Amino acid sequence: MNNIQMISQPTASLPINKPVELYIFIDPLCPNSFAMQSVLRKLQLEYEHYFSWRYVLSTELTSLNCLSNRIKGCLSGDELDITHPALPSIAIKAAELQGKRAGSRYLSKLQEHATLQTKNILSHVALTEIASEVQLDMNEFTVDFGSKEAAHAFQCDLYITREMEVNEVPSIVFFNENVEDEGLKVGGLYDYEVYEHILREMIQDQLVRQPLPTLDELFIRFQTLTTAEVASIYQIAEQVAERELKKRMLQQKVERLVTDDIALWRLKANTI
Predict the structure, then answer these.
(1) Class of 215-271 per CATH?
(2) What is the pLDDT of residue 78?
(3) Which ranges of 5-137 does DSSP label H, i.e. alpha helix?
């Protein structure tokens, strides 16, 4: 645990009754950021009554202003589909303009396609299709994807990344409700118990876990999960998790999506 530092807290106040705030720095194209999402999900299920959170996108990029102009041309039909490493981050920010939950749904679906390699997630057309898949308001998303607001929101994330001197993704910065206290920056990816311990230290009290949802309820909330995630959440062996997931596949509740590296289980559309 050498990669932990104290940093100054931002001026924004914490939400009422949420004594801790997490700044979660990710690059949506980085596999470790997908793993970080699993950690956050378990923290939410057990302890979200203690903390609020926000993703900070830390993708390296160049020529953002030029790219924004090219997107506008693409939207107006003056240019063919474009690809660029910054586009996924701008698309996430466009989705977030429809609300935090909309942004999270979009990010999860984008990472699903990245993991399964079912779409070119650097493509403007593919990113727009993902917005439709997660049932965003498409008129609003189309406008926001090419807007200054989405590009500016992404630029703000890059500014926060520099301001907090985050040099590694994923990273989490923990802040408590005392604005005079420094935040705790944890660079890299650790076991769940490490983040649980830090949250307890920030609260300065014993943590009270929320009861876990049933497996069916879990899929309604997150819709796509790995076998390892299910095993971790319920603290069971992966073989046991696999058996329970296969039961639900036979019941036509979930479907299995497999690549050479990973198996994802996704809630079937007709069960939502």
Answers:
(1) mainly alpha
(2) 44
(3) 31-47, 64-75, 87-96, 100-116, 124-133
